[in-house]
């Protein structure tokens, strides 16, 4: 796979549905599971599948993503492996931004084709899943396909949010519809007994594609008005070419909005999580940080993930993810929350100075109550702060926080004064 396949990871657009987490960073750079970034998921899937050459295409707020990749993915000087950033750039031929997924690949193609490969694997940078791409590529080769689309069985309720496909007995895709609102009964597929028993009767595109090298070059050059794979390129290809469906039945979620992001993170605390981080065959790679072990004093913990370098003095933490360098004060209760942590420790001198001025420290203070919330990185939550998310709160965007689907998101670096109630 190392010689045959090149990976391309799409960094996504502005990520407005994940705002305010994407106000200062791109979607693939959003922290997940306390210590990773979203982009680590597709990169790790590639590395575990023997694909060691990857480009990450970025456009919006890419500085933190660039820094993360530069500090994380180092390979031997004697290896051809790389993970490189390709940012949107003005050229003589094109002076505009990426206009869609296909346009992003088209604009970067002159960099991509400078490498030798037979197949190109195109991935999204904002999905959570574990997948061996070798199986997909082998099926692509066996079927003599020009494109292979990874598909996942979904229910009728979920089908309206995805591109839905139909395939023949050889798994060749015969038709495609984008986010159908009516006539779903015409799009039922034979997804297998197990999937059908769960009501998952529709094949949805996962936004994961394998293209033959020359075919991709040709189809992108044929009509430069087509800017998007899902909406324009693939429907035309299905009519004209051999497009294979590769059905995947494992855990997969599209991190499209705050509620799905929140649910995916808290789902990791389940006794048997759908996404298994403790699988040595599907290791998740990320930046190696020289952090101390976490220190916990007087805290009742239940269904909680704690990353490295934390100092926890809370009275109770339940159904929560605590990110790197999280600091939580005494008598604080945290439930149903993702605390992202911080990028640095404050020195003892800084702490003394902040205390003398009555300022809040980085982290969460004493006697706080936090429920149904996401606390972004480097926040300073004072003492006696109450944050209680839920359906009783209306959605809105405020100076220090936003509310999305009842989830309170404290913005990166926000200073929440002592005694605040949200």
TrEMBL record:
SUPFAM superfamilies: Nucleotide-diphospho-sugar transferases, Trimeric LpxA-like enzymes. GO terms for molecular function: ATP binding; glucose-1-phosphate adenylyltransferase activity. It is an enzyme of class 2 (transferase). It holds the Pfam family NTP_transferase. It comes from the Bacteria. Residues 7-270 form the Nucleotidyl transferase domain. Keywords: ATP-binding, Carbohydrate metabolism, Glycogen metabolism, Nucleotide-binding, Nucleotidyltransferase, Transferase. One of its GO terms (biological process) is glycogen biosynthetic process. Belongs to the bacterial/plant glucose-1-phosphate adenylyltransferase family. This is Glucose-1-phosphate adenylyltransferase. The lineage of its organism: Bacteria, Pseudomonadati, Bacteroidota, Sphingobacteriia, Sphingobacteriales.
